[in-house]
Design a protein that fits this description.
The protein has helices spanning 15-41, 47-59, 63-71, 78-90, 94-107, 115-128, 131-143, 150-162, 166-175, 181-193, 197-209, 216-229, 232-244, 251-263, 267-276, 282-294, 298-311, 317-330, 333-345, 353-365, 369-378, 386-398, 402-415, 420-432, 436-449, 479-495, 511-519, 522-533, 550-563; strands at residues 457-462, 465-470, 540-544, 567-570, 575-579, 582-583. Residues 1-26 and 506-514 have low confidence and may be disordered. The chain has a six-stranded mixed β-sheet with strand order 2-1-3-4-5-6, with helices on one face. 65% of the residues lie in helices and 5% in strands. A hairpin with a 2-residue loop joins strand 1 and strand 2. The protein has 589 residues and is mainly alpha-helical. Helix 21 (369-378) packs antiparallel against helix 22. The chain starts with 14 loop residues before the first helix and ends in a 6-residue tail after the last strand.
């Protein structure tokens, strides 16, 4: 019998619960037979038996049936509450765990929950990103005296990190008297997942130096952090530790290594790892295709995609974003059209905005501006996503079609008027078109709105330590040597034929000021530092947070000639591999 309305159910039916019920069908039937037997024999009054049946029902992923069993118990005891909360959390039904915890506090107010209950509820709050509820549970744990418990502490670190409150996560972490590997992993992954990869790597170094043993979860988080900042040396060290520790090259570790090598510009090593994975899934295939694409190997990306279609798992929507992006950056229009058509025709996948952006980008980069614009109009969207107009405007700038670009600029500002990067791009288009009055108007609008251009910076890893440079940066201890060497480099490449590209800086500057501004861009400073501090013949790898300007692209091609060094730059959009005066992008970027 269902309870009266004044007794709120401990959890609700949801789409996930219904899906779980369907999955549980074969496992649930024996439990229902046991339940029927208990009812017939009168054994359903035995609290121990009905508790075991309820927990087995939860483990079988039948939330609806678990609810019925729980509500049939007149007076649930503390053991049932605790066991069921823990089981809900373990079986990934976080909402139900939190609601049952709340009911437990009302039903048995004198109950002192165990550390396992607090750990389970805090973990569930993290999965729900329920920051306010989790803070309340944190207070409960403190009142109950669990502030020194290592399990509760580790769960709190993970909870705050998942909710994006890294200050609270670090405070809990620092106050833990004994930090388990789980707590270290939670803090490292919290930094990494929230975009603070340098802090994640720094904490990993601290973890390693303190003698704490790390596990595969630690290494996966560190590899992800390495991929974000281009820390290839540390990534290779982690790869060696994986081999030395005897970890299997499973799909999780393997895919993390593929991403790390690909996003650090070492595609050949990424492919070696890919070929070693026996149980490749759609994520590992997609990672390798994406790796080829962002490094400028469009044809290899398409070939691997064709192989995936023939012998691998069915591609998903992310796979198609990877292959379409690869085609866009390599100018493979026909291959891109074919892949795009197969997405819905062969695999029945729904087209998303990311796929439309890739198509506009591909057509625009290929110079098919009119077709790209018609494609946007045929989308039938009242207000296309800003990324669509950004791709279109970038293509107009690339092909110097400023008349078209001015029209597109109005659409972009209407779509996202508070994004400062749009104003910078539009200002450049207006300036190149000679419309200086509009340049001034755009900059005045930015001032009125309080918008500021993002600060560009570049990072480089030397001896497993990451160094950051900004334009004209003089904070580094080796500043004098760096500037002297860069000045020498600029003199050598000028003698080799390099000519500054003045359109890369503000148009109102005098020519001499423009050359000074161009000379000390962050990527040039990072490259000079790298060459001073690495062995001759070693590649120099730099990561830039913004798109590389045309002048730096031209200058670095010449630098690769006069120094006989390979230079790899990862900017906001893609990789540029400079060797002997040429770039892997073939100037198609």
């Amino acid at each position: 019998m269902e309870p009266h309305n004044h007794h709120p159910p401990p959890f609700y039916y949801s789409q996930r619960a219904h899906e779980a019920l369907l999955r549980a069908g074969p496992r649930l039937k024996p439990l229902q037979q046991v339940h029927a037997h208990l009812l017939i024999t009168g054994s359903h009054r035995n609290l121990s038996l009905i508790t075991k049946l309820t927990l087995l029902s939860c483990a079988a992923a039948s939330i609806a049936y678990t609810r019925r069993l729980f509500l049939s118990i007149p007076k649930p005891d503390p053991f049932l509450f605790s066991s069921l909360i823990t089981s809900f959390s373990k079986n990934r039904f976080p909402n139900d765990a939190v609601l049952l915890y709340r009911r437990m506090l009302v039903t048995v107010p004198s109950l002192r929950p165990s550390s396992y209950v607090f750990t389970a509820v805090i973990k569930s709050c993290g999965e729900l990103s329920a920051l306010r509820v989790g803070r309340v549970v944190h207070c409960h744990a403190l009142v109950r005296g669990y502030w020194l418990d290592s399990y509760v502490g580790a769960a709190l670190v993970a909870f705050y990190a998942k909710c994006g409150d890294l200050v609270s996560a670090r405070k809990v972490f620092d106050e833990m008297p004994e930090r388990t590997v789980v707590a270290w992993n939670s803090m490292v992954s919290g930094y990494e997942q929230n975009g603070f990869s340098e802090k994640a790597i720094g904490l990993f170094h601290q973890m390693r130096d303190s003698g704490v043993g790390f596990d595969s979860a630690t290494l996966v988080s560190v590899l992800s952090a390495c991929s974000q900042v281009g820390a290839l040396e540390l990534g290779c060290w982690v790869h060696d530790r994986i081999g030395d520790s005897g970890y299997d090259m499973n799909v999780i570790i393997g895919t993390s290594l593929i991403n790390m090598y690909a996003r650090c510009g070492n595609v050949s090593r990424a492919r070696e790892v890919f070929d070693l994975i026996n149980d490749r899934n759609v994520v590992s295939w997609t990672a390798m295709i994406s790796g080829y694409g962002i490094n400028g190997y469009g044809r290899e990306a398409v070939e691997l995609f064709d192989r995936m279609r023939a012998r691998g798992p069915p591609p998903n929507d992310v796979t198609f974003v990877a292959v379409l992006s690869a085609c866009a950056h390599a100018g493979l229009v026909q291959e891109g059209r074919k892949a795009f058509a197969s997405m819905s025709e062969d695999f029945g996948l729904v087209l998303g905005m990311e796929h439309h952006v890739c198509m506009v980008d591909m057509l625009g980069r290929a110079g098919l501006l009119s077709e790209a614009f018609e494609y946007i109009k045929q989308l039938g969207l009242v207000k296309p996503a800003p990324a669509v107009w950004t791709a279109m405007l970038g293509a107009c700038k690339m092909h110097k079609n400023f008349e078209f670009g001015v029209r597109v600029a109005d659409h972009l500002l209407a779509a996202e008027p508070e994004n400062p990067s749009h104003y910078v791009l539009i200002s450049n288009v207006y300036a190149l078109a000679g419309k200086m009055d509009r340049v001034e108007a755009i900059r005045n609008r930015m001032i009125q709105k309080g918008l500021k251009k993002g600060v560009g910076y570049s990072t480089i890893e030397v001896n497993q330590k990451t160094y950051l440079f900004s334009m004209g940066d003089k904070s580094h201890p080796e500043t004098i040597a760096i500037y002297e060497y860069l000045d020498e480099l600029m003199k050598r490449i000028s003698e080799a034929g390099y000519v500054p590209v003045p359109e890369s800086v503000m148009h109102e500057l005098e020519e001499e000021e423009k050359e000074y501004e161009l000379r000390y861009h962050s990527e040039k400073l990072a490259i000079a530092f790298g060459m001073l501090n690495t062995s001759h013949g070693m590649p120099v790898r730099v990561v830039k947070n913004l798109r590389m300007c045309k002048d730096c692209h031209s200058a670095i091609k010449f630098i690769s000639v006069v120094t006989h060094r390979e230079i790899i730059v990862r900017d906001k959009l893609r990789f540029h591999h400079f060797t002997d005066g040429s770039c892997s992008c073939a100037d198609y970027w």
